[in-house]
């Protein structure tokens, strides 16, 4: 299959706006990433014109931490964007692996802040900073994707939280986005603060069982300071994150440069706390004492090995049974809607009408709820543990 001159090789991702493919550009013989918008997202000619204008503007951006946009075009009744093909991991996968140190986290945040600062100076507000839009390349560099493409409105206009459909996850939205107010670069810095909180603390700062609860938490709740959760977190880093998460944009960092400078200070503080290891002093104890202590340690070690050898044999079968039992445990997704009777789709597969209980394995899903005469609703949902997960969707009438 082709879009324009680009030959599709394979699908590499899917989001609320469309599908991303690994493609080949035969004209210059190179790999590219091709993002194809879903046909139902091309809602009007006005949207198409604004999208082309925004995409061309973004194509002029040149920064080492921003994915390069090569081309934009129309084919098969939809729009496609040709971008730099990146080899690496989306940041949401990196977060789940939990393999980053505090120093690495600060370094990544510095790269993101620097890229945002460059874009903001060019008059572009990202408006969709979240882990899945950040790629950590195999070389360890950060690349921001979907700059202005996910939302192709004028950056001076109010941010619409629902333009016929809610896209993606709301966890990283700023209070002004949730309330549909005018946004600027400080909204991007709030989203970066949410990501930093999640990386440092190990959980998101705002929670809720459904979108309404999450939106309320974003606008009303003050998260617990990272330092109060883990006293090993440097005070300046905890303060930085809390400032970035201020409800009032005037109380946050006013520019990306301000946030960069604060991050650099945190990195210096963190490095100053790393004390060199003390050299091991030679033992001054008599040789006979050392030999006796060594013999006693050996006897104790043999006893421990014997005990655990017998004990572990008794527990092995029951442990194996518990592991196998956990593998078979499914989660239950309870989907309700207002009004009820809406169709429920899970990864584009029809499952029934609301209210409905769905037994599903733990994992990530795209949920879509639709009802005639009402705006469609969809979101990506991560089921992390067994048990019941309620999801209530309030559908909005087209009228």
Structural class: alpha+beta
**What is the CATH topology classification name of the largest domain?**
Transferase(Phosphotransferase), domain 1
Highest CATH level, the class of the largest domain: Mainly Alpha
Gyration radius over CA: 26 Å
CATH architecture annotation of the largest domain = Orthogonal Bundle
The ordered string of helix (H) and strand (E) elements is EEEEHEEEHHEEHHHHHHHEEEEEEE
Number of domains: 3
The amount of helix comes to 25-40%
Number of strands: 16
Strand order of the largest sheet: 1-2-3-4-6-5
Question: Residue ranges: pLDDT <50 for 5 or more in a row?
Answer: 150-168, 274-292, 304-308, 310-328
- First-last Cα distance: 39 Å
Full CATH superfamily name of the largest domain: Transferase(Phosphotransferase) domain 1
The overall average pLDDT, rounded, is: 78
| Beta-strand content | 15-25%
- Overall geometry comes to globular
> What does the main sheet amount to?
6 strands, antiparallel
Number of helices: 10
Describe the structure.
The longest helix is centred in the C-terminal third of the chain and has 42 residues. Strands 1-2-3-4-6-5 form a 6-stranded antiparallel sheet, with helices on one face. Strands 12-11-14-15 form a 4-stranded antiparallel sheet, with no helix packed on it. A 3-stranded antiparallel sheet has the order 7-8-9. α5 crosses α8. It has 10 helices and 16 strands. The protein is of the alpha+beta class. The protein has 3 domains: 83 residues, Phosphorylase Kinase, domain 1 (2-Layer Sandwich), CATH 3.30.200; 184 residues, Transferase(Phosphotransferase), domain 1 (Orthogonal Bundle); 66 residues, Sandwich (Immunoglobulin-like), CATH 2.60.40. About 16% of the residues have low confidence.
């Amino acid at each position: 299959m082709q879009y324009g001159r680009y030959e599709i090789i394979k699908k590499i991702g899917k989001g609320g706006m469309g599908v991303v493919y690994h493609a080949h550009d035969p004209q210059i013989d190179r790999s590219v990433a091709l993002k194809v918008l879903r046909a139902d997202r091309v809602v009007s000619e006005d949207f198409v014109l604004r999208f082309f204008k925004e995409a061309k503007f973004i194509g002029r951006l040149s920064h080492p931490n921003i994915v390069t946009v090569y081309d934009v075009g129309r084919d098969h009744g939809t729009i496609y964007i040709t971008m730099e093909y990146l080899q690496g991991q989306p940041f949401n996968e990196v977060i789940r692996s939990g393999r980053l140190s505090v120093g690495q986290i600060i370094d990544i945040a510095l790269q993101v802040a620097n890229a945002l600062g460059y874009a903001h100076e060019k008059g572009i507000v990202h408006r969709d900073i979240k882990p899945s839009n950040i790629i950590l390349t195999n070389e360890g560099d950060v690349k921001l994707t979907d700059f202005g493409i996910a939302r192709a409105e004028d950056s001076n206009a109010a941010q619409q939280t629902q333009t016929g459909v809610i896209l993606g996850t709301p966890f990283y939205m700023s209070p002004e986005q949730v309330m549909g107010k005018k946004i600027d670069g400080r909204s991007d810095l709030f989203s970066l603060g949410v990501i930093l909180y999640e990386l440092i603390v190990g959980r998101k700062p705002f929670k809720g069982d459904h979108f309404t609860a999450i939106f309320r938490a974003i606008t009303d709740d003050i998260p617990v300071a990272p330092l109060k959760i883990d006293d090993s977190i440097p005070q300046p880093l905890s303060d930085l994150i809390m400032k970035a998460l201020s409800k009032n944009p005037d109380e946050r960092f006013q520019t990306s440069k301000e946030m960069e400078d604060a991050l650099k200070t945190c990195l210096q503080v963190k490095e100053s706390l790393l004390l060199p290891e003390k050299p091991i002093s030679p033992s001054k104890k008599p040789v006979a004492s050392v030999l006796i202590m060594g013999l006693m340690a050996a006897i104790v070690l043999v006893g421990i090995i014997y005990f655990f050898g017998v004990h572990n044999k008794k527990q092995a079968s029951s442990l194996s049974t518990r592991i196998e039992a956990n593998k078979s445990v499914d989660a239950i997704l309870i989907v309700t809607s207002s009004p009820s009777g809406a169709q429920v789709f899970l990864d584009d597969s029809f499952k029934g009408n609301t209210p409905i209980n769905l037994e599903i394995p733990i994992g990530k899903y795209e949920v879509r709820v639709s009802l005639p005469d009402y705006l469609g609703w969809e979101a990506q949902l991560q089921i992390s543990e067994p048990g019941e997960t309620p999801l209530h969707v309030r559908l909005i009438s087209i009228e």
